[in-house]
Amino acid sequence: xxxxxxxxxxxxxxxxxxxxxxxxxxxxxxxxxxxxxxxxxxxxxxxxxxxxxxxxxxxxxxxxxxxxxxxxxxxxxxxxxxxxxxxxxxxxxxxxxxxxxxxxxxxxxxxxxxxxxxxxxxxxxxxxxxxxxxxxxxxxxxxxxxxxxxxxxxxxxxxxxxxxxxxxxxxxxxxxxxxxxxxxxxxxxxxxxxxxxxxxxxxxxxxxxxxxxxxxxxxxxxxxxxxxxxxxxxxxxxxxxxxxxxxxxxxxxxxxxxxxxxxx
Length: 264
Prior knowledge:
Elements: H1 2-11, H2 15-26, H3 34-61, H4 82-88, H5 92-95, E1 99-103, H6 110-123, E2 128-132, H7 133-146, H8 149-157, E3 161-167, H9 174-187, E4 192-197, H10 204-208, H11 211-222, E5 226-229, H12 235-263
Helix pairs in contact: 1-2, 2-3, 3-6, 7-8, 9-11
């Protein structure tokens, strides 16, 4: 009877329940009442489905970094408002259809922070998509050529959270400007967007070009958005220096160890 039950669980794709019931049968010293066993099996199945959903959402997002808020450095030189960043992890800004604009010089951790917020959103069941914005424009250009442009735009619109990284590295031409306008217009007041850029927000107008369209985009994008302005030294440079220091210390230890052994 148990073998048949386990087989039926597999056929119904109740994998979490299958594992839990298998564990229960193997640990036959565990005693469950009927109510407890049913609750245990259902909870196991729910947990399994929830974890697989998070894994699926995270994989679909295609983040640049595997990041978490716990890994973010809040040292004073970076001037990060820790309370604000922690509030982002509740993802209320997604429920409220608000934007987050992250600016700072190269290497200060913009992409990492954006990815960390994105990972947190996935863990709460939100659909997230991460793009390097120039690669996105290239993808949309190809989509226009093969007739799938509107399908791509619709897919972007349906994301609960859209992360656009490295905005402002190149000035927008007519096609990019039009595509950017469509993306922002479709999401305005409906979905949340995070944009990370090396340029301060005051320089975005020039990058977008064509005053009327730039005004329209920035009015929808910047108005009532949360702003995170990162300062301090490049985290990549700091990490590289720390690696060099570690190598130096390790070398010194290797040199001193024989001396210590001799003295013993």
